[in-house]
Amino acid sequence: MKADLAWLENPEVFQVNRQPAHSDHIFNVKGESTRISLNGTWKFCYAENPSLRPVDFYRLDYDCSGFGDIQVPGHIQLQGYDRCQYINTMYPWDGQEFLRPPHISENYNPTGSYVKEFLVEEMPEGRMYLSFQGVETAFYLWVNGSFIGYSEDTFTPSEFDITDVISVGINKIAVEVYKRSSASWIEDQDFWRFSGIFRDVYLYSTPKLHIRDLFVNGELIHGYQDGKLNIRLTMQGDETGYIRAYLKRYDDVVWYEEISKKSLIVETEAEIPSVQPWSAEIPDLYTLYLEVYDQKDHLVESLTTKVGFRNFEMIDGIMCINGKRIIFKGINRHEFNPRRGRSVTEEDMLWDIRFMKQYNINAVRTCHYPDQTRWYELCDEYGIYLIDEMNLESHGSWQKMGACEPSWNVPGSRPEWAGCVMDRAISMLERDKNHPSIVIWSCGNESYAGDVLASVSEYFHKADPSRLVHYEGVFWNRDYDYISDMESRMYAKPAEIEEYLKANPAKPYISCEYMHAMGNSLGGMELYTKLEDKYPGYQGGFIWDYIDQAVYRTLDNGKEVLAYGGDFDDRATDYCFCTNGIVFADRVPSPKAQEVKFLYSDVKIHVCNGEVTIHNQSLFRNTNAYKFRFMLEKEGICIAESQPDICVEPGQKTSLPFGNEIPKEPGEYCCTVSMVLAQDTLWESAGYEVTFGQETVRVILEADQNEDTGADSGKDRHNAIGNTLEVIHGDVNVGVRTKTCFAMFSKQEGGIISLVYSGKEYITRVPKLSYWRATTDNDRGMKTEALLSQWQAASLGQRYLDNRFEMEESEEKVTLTFFYEAGSIPKFTSSVVYTMHADGVLEVTITYPGVEEMPPLPLFGIDFKLKGRLNQAVYLGKGPMENYLDRKAGAKKGIYRTTPEQNLTPYLIPQECGNRTGVSWLSVTDDQEEGIEFIALDGDYECSVLPYSAYELENAMHLYELPSVNYTWVRLIAKQMGVGGDDSWGAPIHDEYLINAQEPLTLRFAVKEHLSK
Questions:
Q1: At what angle do helices 451-463 and 418-432 cross, to 10 degrees?
Q2: H-helix or E-strand containing 99?
Q3: Cα dihedral 295, 299, 305, 307 sign
Q4: Is residue 297 helix, strand or coil?
Q5: Is 513 an active-site residue?
Q6: Residue 348 confidence (pLDDT)
Q7: DSSP three-state, residue 139
Q8: Separation between Cα atoms, residue 377 and residue 369, nearest integer Å
Q9: What is the mean pLDDT of residues 136-149?
Q10: With 0-12 CB in 10 A as exposed, 13-18 as middle and 19+ as buried, what is 77?
Q11: Residue 928 neighbours by CB distance under 10 Å
């Protein structure tokens, strides 16, 4: 047979001479694996389309000395060839060429010609195979000049028998990889459009008698107390023999059997008493040993595979793991590395799985393709529930600009697409079927619905009844509702989910995608997690998504930066829509992860009125793996702590006194209960905090309740310590001198223009009121720029009303009031009141009156433009990471130290960031810890300390566009609306997290000198 380029446009040709899919087990011959890695440097030639490729490069006599080098595994586009292109739902050729399935471009179809030589020292007893674990998108294979085969399906292995064409000595592999084929129409995932050999390549040989495939299933019986082990082996080789099989838990053999090989299919089953079940909470694994002997009792082959005994089933309309209702605290995970794209390393995977355990994530959807085998092994070992999703998405064939229009949808019910789609399902199931972490098979993503996917669902159910089947696309075509065992939706809002659950539905509910974490997002997640206790049919969801898909690129000035769609001049593109992770592309946790960790915890701790309630919502594990630390703090300083022994059984709750009595001295006290690991685990060290509960209590003396406590002002204090206050009345300015400071207020500029402590000036310009924030990705997605622009105008166009300046003096203080008219329509007037006390404390009160006929208010606050030397910040408030009105459940009140640069959260598009809620005081200082403090007077405030103003952030589309740092911008905020996150293309921020423009707001705080201790 000869290779034929026509296969590229024929969906009915998706493999030629490829081996049937089989399990991913590793076997040994004579105690060693026969695998020989071919990873490393290959010879490579790039062509923009097939007509430009070196046609005969596969021939043994072809001179490849003019080829360049490329690394395998790796993407072509990340190694200096072709270009990077990111796109979401559109097909990547949209607007470039008019195409319809199954056709592909003749002009642009990047083609990579790969060549690798390998040494064969001796011919194998059995067969020799060449295995490609992942090649995007389609490829042809030759060995020693002979055509071997063809394959599609980027994300499952393609293996070929090359026994008959290899010889002892040097052998030549030639691989021709195409970026586009008919398969591109069903690989329209939301990701960078790469190509190349991006997963491992290796040779392996099999012995004369070989286990080609095994299906091992451990289920629970007798009330989930005992185990049933089912083994099905597919043998290769005509020789007779037998298999010794034994199952071990640690070093103990719990079952043994000698099985005769009478045919190519060998089956056995056994009951194992008192097994330890597998779950994500307690991922108990057994090891199955299989030893193959020939008829002369010679050991021919041996292998091991992990076995987890677990049942995942529907009980009375509820998904259950080992008999218990499951809640998926999940996330969607693309395989991604900013330098390597989807060619991730084991180091990446280990970081990911440890992060997920650290942040209480218990489930992953492999969006939208099967992952590397190593990921499934790690999920078995560490304990993660998986929705294993086949490599299918044809989003652009049925949904255009959000509208459902499936007139030319593929695969739909088109018979010519049935084979290639079913092949993808078979390849995934056969490879992955032995992993207990997989509880659900998914028929792919966003491909509408039709007979083809109905057949896939039927196949999954018949081939593996031990798992359920998922497919969200039936939401768009209810004629095929039976495809999915559960109701699965994307970005349904909490009210929509409740509406479904209240209607006595036949299926339980999950959100296969929710909480679109694009930029500064994930606000309102608590509204979803609250449904867990309210509705049994609500079984959780999977955040979109895990990691930003941002790629490193080098600017013309040599600086390396993270880039998003469009930065490579790629068109069409969806720009920054690839930056939706709770982890940044360089694997640094984003502030959004703080909220996920808290809300996804299985243990809920509530501290209220001196009582602690611990609710262990785990299904199988008590709290003996943790220690509970009770800590009482005053103004962020620990004054008492204890560590009682507490064991709460799964599904139970207990209450006990906090124990550390709050003193009667006035101040702010935090009662915190922290749950930490008692011992080291696979994923973190002892002492790591898993979750916490906290209550804040303010103690105010009755005599002080009606006093001005913020500045401790008044005649008694003024007279007692002999402070003096001098007021200098100029024509334009009012100066105020005290024993410790000097302040100057401008009647012309409309506010304070100088504040000097210890000879250092702290004011650069008059602080300005602000009603607006730099728009977030969600703000822009809601198309609210026009609405929010009124508040931007109110801020930038505000006019100082010099004719309304007011001033009052007394012995102990001087008060100056300035009024500002907002530049919006309608106009309104706000005020700033400065009161300088004789002890050098400056009290500031800003007031917003509330306005009708205006959209919701983004925020109300005041901006201080401080000198850049003030680059250290310490605060008592919620942290340690940024938090907002609708994303603060996971923020703990305490004392935190940070810097303006650290607060500039590296969202790929600069936007509102760095906010802190519940702030009692903030100090901003230089490196010698000399500076000023901002102290809340009436309750807490919100604030940010950044190297840029909101307006500078708004004007930049990349972080590198921001200017060099010259100032420190302190923004003190009475209230800021939430950031939202139901989706990033129109979902509004929930009402409870908005600020009604008619609501008057006041912020009152004191400013004083901060001296180094």
A1: 30
A2: none
A3: positive
A4: coil
A5: yes
A6: 98
A7: strand
A8: 16
A9: 98
A10: buried
A11: 10
What are 368-394's pLDDT values in tens digits? 999 999 999 999 999 999 999 999 999
CB distance 452 to 418 below 8 Å: yes
- Report d(CA 524, CA 527) in Å as an integer: 6
User: CA 972, CA 809: separation in Å to the nearest integer?
Assistant: 26
- Kindly state the tokens that stand for 198: 């991006």
Run of H or E residues at 953: helix 950-954
Three-class SS state of 483: helix
Query: Three-class SS of residue 198?
Result: coil
Query: Alpha-carbon torsion 444, 445, 451, 457, what sign?
Result: positive
Nearest to 587, CA basis, from 545, 548, 559? 548
pTM of the predicted model as reported, rounded to 2 decimal places: 0.97
How is residue 446 written in tokens?
């966003």
d(CA 491, CA 606): 29
Total residues found in the chain within this entry: 1013
The 10s digit of each residue's pLDDT in 262-289 is: 899 999 999 999 999 999 999 999 999 9
Q: Which helix (H) or strand (E) holds 301?
A: strand 299-307
> C-alpha distances in angstroms, 276 versus 226, 381, 1001?
8, 14, 58
* C-alpha span between 517 and 577 (Å, rounded): 10
Query: What is the amino acid identity at position 530?
Result: K
């895990």: which residue's tokens? 546
Q: Percent of the chain, pLDDT > 70?
A: 98
Q: If you average pLDDT over residues 217-222, what whole number do you get?
A: 98
Six-digit token string for 495: 């009210």
Per-residue pLDDT averaged across 556-573, rounded? 97
Question: Residue 117: beta bridge partners?
Answer: 172
CB count in 10 Å sphere of residue 299: 15
Of the candidates 571, 782, 812, the one whose C-alpha atom is nearest the C-alpha of residue 708 is 812
From the list 587, 579, 550, 604, the residue with the least C-alpha distance to 329 is 604
Distance CA 479, CA 504 (A): 20
Q: How far apart are CA 832 and CA 840, in angstroms?
A: 19
pLDDT surpassing 70 at residue 703: no
Residue 666 CA to residue 961 CA, distance in Å, equals 48
3-state secondary structure of 501: helix
Per the CB < 8 A criterion, the answer to whether 747 and 805 are in contact is yes
3-state secondary structure 741-784: EEEEEECCCCEEEEEEECCEECCCCCCEEECCCCCCHHHHHCCC
Show the 3-state SS of 970-990: EEEEEEECCCCCCCCCCCCCC
689 classed as catalytic: no
pLDDT of 592 over the 70 cut? yes
Q: Of 774, 324, 330, 782, nearest to 525 (Cα)?
A: 330
pLDDT in tens, 226-247: 999 999 999 999 889 999 999 9
User: What is the distance between the alpha carbons of residues 271 and 258, in angstroms, rounded to a whole number?
Assistant: 15
The amino acid occupying position 944 is S
462: Cβ contacts below 8 Å, ≥ 6 apart: none
| Among 195, 8, 189, 176, CA closest to 99 | 8
Which entry of 335, 446, 668, 843 is annotated as an active-site residue? 446
Omega before residue 545 within 30° of 0, cis: yes
Q: Exposure pattern of 966-1004 as b/e (b: 16+ CB <10 Å)?
A: ebbbbbbbbbbbbbbbbbbeebebbeebbbebeeebebb
In the chain the first and final C-alpha atoms are separated, in Å, by 83
What average pLDDT is seen over the chain?
Answer: 96
d(CA 128, CA 205): 4
Q: Measured between alpha carbons, how far is 57 from 50 in angstroms, rounded to an integer? A: 13
Question: Do residues 112 and 72 lie in contact, with contact meaning Cβ atoms separated by under 8 Å?
Answer: no
**Which range, of 497-506, 550-559, 705-714, 715-724, averages the lowest pLDDT?**
705-714
Indicate which residue of 176, 219, 313, 513 is catalytic. Answer: 513
C-alpha radius of gyration, the chain, whole number: 33
Cis? peptide before 988, omega within 30° of 0: no
